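README, section 4: Worked example with a bound small molecule

Sections 1 through 3 covered apo chains. Here we extend the same pipeline to holo records, where the ligand is supplied as SMILES alongside the sequence. The molecule in this example is zinc ion. Nothing else about the input changes; the structure line simply encodes the ligand pose together with the chain.
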Amino acid sequence: MKLYKTDAIVLSDSDLGDQDKIITLLSHRYGKIRAVAKGARRLKSRFAPAMQMLSYVTAVLYKSKRIEVDTFNECKINSSFLGIRNELLRLAYGYYSIELIMKCVHGAETPPFLFDLVLKILFLLEKIPKESLPVLMRSFELRMLTILGYRPYLAGCVECHQKVEKNRRVFFSGYEGGILCANCSKEKRGKLVSFETIQWMKFLRTVSLDKLANLKLSHRVSEELKIIPKSYIPHRVGEEVLSYTFIETVQALETEVETAKKTSSPSTETRVSWIDQE
Amino acid sequence: MYTVKSINKLVKEFSNLPGIGEKSAQRLVFFISRTSKEYGKRLIEAIREVMEKVKYCSVCGSVTESDPCPICQDRTRDKSIICVVEEPWDVFVFEKTGKFRGLYHVLGGAISPTKGMNPQDINIGGLLKRVKTHKIREVILATDPNTDGQATALYIAKLLKGRGISVTRLGMGLPVGGDLEFADEDTLSHALEGRRAM
Ligand SMILES: [Zn+2]
Ligand SMILES: [Zn+2]
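The generated complex, written as structure tokens:
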């Protein structure tokens, strides 16, 4: 057995018997790792606090020669991202980011800058203004897809390679993996999107992450960019990213709460309509 | 290979139980095969009784033999405080402390977006209905101190906002990352006393 040390982000944990947990990590240098945390289910475990999804840790692990599951020797928390955990909408995005990594990253073949990207995204997720959360996520998706070789084809039509021009109708197809011109789409395949949205897709892959908070996207572009999580990613990874639904649920609730705040009188007796959803 | 049909059958049933693998199941079955006939009868009777008598309270969702459960029917309890927990088992854990005199609400799970468990998949609707139809002063969110428990608490807190109800969460002292069911009475009593507004 060999000891090694790595920075990592906890992606998931599941119970292993009555005492232990098995943890999936995204590590800095060794890609996705699975490791056993002995005693982590016990109440006073030294491991338990560090073993939560979304924690940024430095771990010392035993590498097993025989099996693909390593064992924790030490684990120290660098950040548990309280800014994400303490706010519902940010937490919803946190779940989504983690699930995205779980489903897109496979095995040990990941470059260290993927880890750096994820870490940077989580730090931004803690503090970026709420209205910038969608654009942060779209930029994360496009960057990660690019790093992992899943990037959408945006240079021209995926079929005839014709360049996309400003005043032509352009379609985007998750199934086909990029742009379709009007001819190839025949108005059937893909979804009609604006030229601007395609430009944003290209821009969000490379723009400095620190500048995201200053970007203003039109309502139309924001809506159209949702084709990435809703259709493009599911087609590329072969399954749905389940927690995207939760972002939408929370977003809807926040909008309702905001509207209720504006319309209701200060009396606590007022029964506002959103309470009757069920 | 030598096998005994009836033993295999029971081993298979026991292995379906949570936390019991095939080895443990075999040990249990061999124990039962050697034990007295009286013990065997009591065991069968006990299982039958649970199957026949135990149901879920239609008000709070706890396990009970009568509906509504004795807690919901108890006139001495403070009906203006509801303690929200994930699993029926958590009610027993709180009752053991003897410190809580309000009512409960069992959600039957936690929100877990990556597993496809969304707010509509747990009994949040029932809680809203109770809050709407009764004078509730405080809702204590006692979901597990892990990420899913936190998401569930934040969601319910947001839902109950602006209704003149004080919404609180169990205080410090509860170890992060754990299951409520593993908490001892002292820790839980402290967490209950140290609850803070959300
Ligand atoms: Zn074409
Ligand atoms: Zn009850």
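What to look for in the output: Residues 65 and 100 of chain A are 29 Å apart (CA to CA). Chain A has two domains: 2-80, 83-251.

Section 5 describes how to batch many such records.
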